[in-house]
Design goal:
Elements (H helix, E strand, L loop, with lengths): L1 H20 L4 H6 L1 H33 L3 H7 L1 H13 L84 H11 L7 E5 L5 H8 L3 E5 L3 H10 L5 E2 L13 E7 L7 H11 E14 L4 H14 L3 H6 L3 H4 L8 E12 H9 L2 H4 L3 H18 L4 E14 L3
Parallel strand pairs: 1-2, 1-4, 2-3, 4-5
Antiparallel strand pairs: 5-7, 6-7
Length: 400
Amino acid sequence: MVVMFALCSAMAFRHTWDGFTRRPDPTRQASLRGLLTIGFVGSLLAYFFRSLTEAPARSSTARSTRQPASNTRSARPAARATRRKSAAAHKPRPLTEISPPSPRPRPPWPYDHTSSAHHPTGADTTTEPPRTEPRAPNPRPPPPTRLTPHPHRPRKLLQHRRSPVRGQPPLLPPALFDAIEDLANHPLPGSRVADIGAGTGIATALLHARGANVLAVEPGDGMAAQFRSTLPDIPIVRGTGDDLPLADASVDFLTYAQSWHWTDHARAVPEALRVLRPGGALALWWNTDALDVPWIAEAATRTERHFGIDIPAEKRNVNARVADPTGRLDLTHHTVRWSRRIPVDTHLANIGSHSIFLVHGEEHTASFLAEEREHLLSAFPDGFVEEVYDVILLLARTPA
């Protein structure tokens, strides 16, 4: 049968070939119709049997060489995730999902945070416009260093550099800010004020309440953290008066509320003149005890005897010569007296938070405060004391 189908197929092929070279004979074409049909069916059967023998062999070979699909997917999940991300990234997004990038907000203050490369404490992370003389940025600011006052400066001034305050620290009278405006011949409302050594923000808050646009500058981590928790709406940056993180001629007022003595005056004076605008003012002040009040003078005598310091002499050293040994500032001296009435225990908590008490240890401080409480209650049987202060203000203006 195979031979028969082969012969018929060969004859059919020849007949078809002859049809291309000569005109077919209708009579002969009709007689060969059966033969052609057998050849055509034979060709179909030949291809059919060939597929039955070859297709299974190829399928088994492919299964043996190919890794199972489940193994391939579980073996490289990272590659599968990468392919999915790539496909999602190249997937076209509708126009409604595409929004233009929001403009970067401009800072309200001309901070110069690039100065952290030379600053011992670095600066905050907010990016600001560069100063007139740009400095190379520091990708990893050094850890903050603990500031120490100049060894030849008054020690009593250090008492007002407070730790986290216990009790009610003395605020500042409105008359102080009136005097600053009068001496500077410039109003505080709307002015740019940089409060250096802001601490926990006592003076900064009062300047802000007067309507000034205030920026706080503070080198200490603990003080800055307490400042942010108390005054979250007022900006604060890291820095010191020796290397101010401010642009040239950028502020109207530069204030040091009981913090000027923490600076190196030979460096702080040029820095102050650099950042002040023409006609700007540098204001330094210290809130000191009024030693001409009898009970305050007696308390100062007891403090001198207990801790070995000369409080009156140190108060006299708050003057222009000590504040500006360079002689570049034309400082004006002004004193503002004010008072307040508070409980004895609040008064003791305030003076106990001064640094001079903190450095002598808790036991030494507790014994002094217990003795002081007895003296105060004998002078004020109702349990309230009238604290009297003299705010010593030194102010210098830059040429207009």
